[in-house]
Sequence to fold (120 residues):
Amino acid sequence: QVQLVESGGGLVQPGGSLSLSCAASGDIAQITAMGWYRQAPGEQRELVADIGSDGTNYADSVKGRFTISKNNAKNTVDLQMNSLKPEDTAVYYCRVLGRRIGALYFSHYWGQGTQVTVSS
Fold:
């Protein structure tokens, strides 16, 4: 199995910063892309940022404020969030595109989510 463990969520005031981290473990042989999604109450889950062999991709709403990075050796992906706004409040999910040991195909794997609340 593949496990994704997220950490770093919490409560922060508008204008503040938070850093999220996600670590992939288990019988994963290869990872080609890692990313962060978020889902606010009553809204659809949306891409925040992802990173892969073709570079990085950000939602327009977070460009210039959020930075995604990954460590290939540790199978981790981080999201540094600066200048946070109340509209950034959501559950943030880590997603990995990877291949399990012995498998011929790639699949998406999701973390359990971590709450980020931006409020004064």
